[in-house]
Design brief:
The protein is α/β, with parallel strands linked by helices. It contains 14 helices and 15 strands. The strands form four sheets. A nine-stranded mixed sheet has the order 1-4-8-5-11-12-13-14-15, with helices on both faces. A two-stranded antiparallel ribbon has the order 2-3.
Length: about 400
């Protein structure tokens, strides 16, 4: 990944393909329209003759389309060990597609993109976007690739929200959904975190109302926003085992520099993230997540969820502080009560909190592989609640360190 000047034009991910939708794209709110949309994407595996083996992966709030290494980019992807021949998502069987989200800074149109009307970066002239807009842009790509119906849509966190919504918006275009660590609508605790992250960014004088491209980059604001979010993304249990009260210097010394290992860790995560993401993208996509509600425009959440006709597997993480597991249970319960008889719920006992979605892949890989490869028409659609027992609650220092160094 070549960052160049992050305050100027976003980031370039090596090996991505680019689809240019040259027609105006109407957005959900405010009668806004984007004059054009560029969509950065990557694919793995081969589309079969029937064109019915495609899987669409939706990424999280700050992820690129680089899910897995390939010949055009040999750097590890964010689901590197999850994808490939014989893996949870078997590329000998499936054609995998991942599009960078609308509003991001990794190739798809977002605030750091050039506004054709002005010849300058959009900045905060970029219109308000929603998770629905993110989904519809992804399906522009699916149309471009000539795919009428997906074998599956899946993702974690924002990606899990988008996967659910894709089945609601396009019920005849998707065979099954896997939603990991997501929700049916954003709850107050998540909205509060999004608000505080945005306040961190906007309080940085270098943010300059969003017009910082080509100027001093609001590094401090984005760094603080990520430091705050990191406290939600991991679990207390992991940090007790990993850090405890270990120190890097004597806390009794004068000054307020980091003295504890956990402080150093949080500082490092903030600095690393601030050098590879665009602050305005975080503003826009976090706001889209805050506004997410599948029941919007319907008389009830149940009515909104009743649009989802296909089988759905919902996975929740016991230690998730960001989207607590009761929110995934709510998704499964409302789906069932709205008439969907093909709902499966998995409770994942991982110690890594919300970041289990990216870190502890072995804990839910077997379940996802089986769900993707099962012929639901033959085996029957069973509504059940399952709980994984293998590797439950086991912390790996090497696994944590490898993840933190990569992401």
């Amino acid at each position: 990944m070549n960052s160049g000047d992050p305050g100027r034009r976003g980031f370039q991910v090596d090996g991505t393909e680019l689809f240019h939708h040259s027609s105006p794209f109407p957005l959900k709110y405010n009668n806004s329209t984007l004059p054009e949309v560029h969509i950065a994407y990557e694919t793995w595996g081969k589309l079969n003759e029937q064109r019915d083996n495609a899987i669409l992966v939706f990424g999280g709030i700050s992820l690129s389309s680089h899910v897995k290494s390939h010949s055009g980019n040999n750097s590890a992807g964010w689901w590197e060990t999850f994808i490939g021949p014989g893996c949870a998502i078997d590329t000998d069987k499936f054609y995998l597609i991942c599009a960078n989200n609308l509003g991001s800074c990794y190739g798809t149109t977002g605030p750091s993109s050039i506004n054709p009307a002005t010849g300058k970066e959009y900045g905060t002239d970029f219109p308000t976007i929603t998770v629905e807009d993110i989904v519809r842009v992804a399906f522009l790509l699916i149309d471009h690739l000539g795919i009428d119906k997906l074998h599956a849509g899946l993702g974690g966190s924002l990606g899990g929200m988008a996967a659910l919504l894709s089945a609601a918006i396009f019920p005849n275009r998707i065979n099954r959904v896997i939603s990991i660590a997501a929700c049916a609508y954003s709850h107050p605790s998540a909205i509060a975190l999004g608000y505080l992250q945005r306040q961190c960014i906007m309080a940085d004088p270098n943010w300059n109302g969003g017009d910082y491209y080509g100027r001093q980059y609001p590094l401090t604001g984005l760094k603080l926003a990520r430091e705050l979010a990191t406290t939600y993304y991991r679990s207390n249990s992991e940090w007790e085992l990993r850090f405890g009260r270990k120190t890097v210097s004597d806390p009794r010394s004068s000054g307020f520099k980091p003295n504890y290992q956990i402080e150093n860790y949080i500082k490092h995560q903030g600095e690393k993230f601030a050098n590879k993401y665009d602050p305005n993208s975080l503003l826009y996509i976090s706001k889209a997540m805050d506004m997410f509600d599948i029941g919007e425009g319907f008389s009830s959440l149940s009515e909104g969820m009743s649009r989802i006709k296909c089988p759905v597997m919902v996975l929740g993480i016991t230690t998730d502080n960001f989207y607590p597991i009761w929110q995934q249970k709510e998704v499964a319960d409302v789906l069932q009560k709205s008439g969907n008889g093909a709902v499966t719920f998995y409770e994942i006992n991982s110690i890594y909190g919300h970041d289990t979605v990216l870190l502890d892949l072995s804990n839910f890989g077997v379940a996802i592989k089986g769900y993707l490869e099962t012929s639901l028409e033959v085996c029957g659609n069973v509504s059940k609640s399952l709980k994984t027992e293998d590797k439950c609650g086991i912390w790996s220092e090497q696994l944590s360190a490898e993840f933190d160094n990569a992401y």
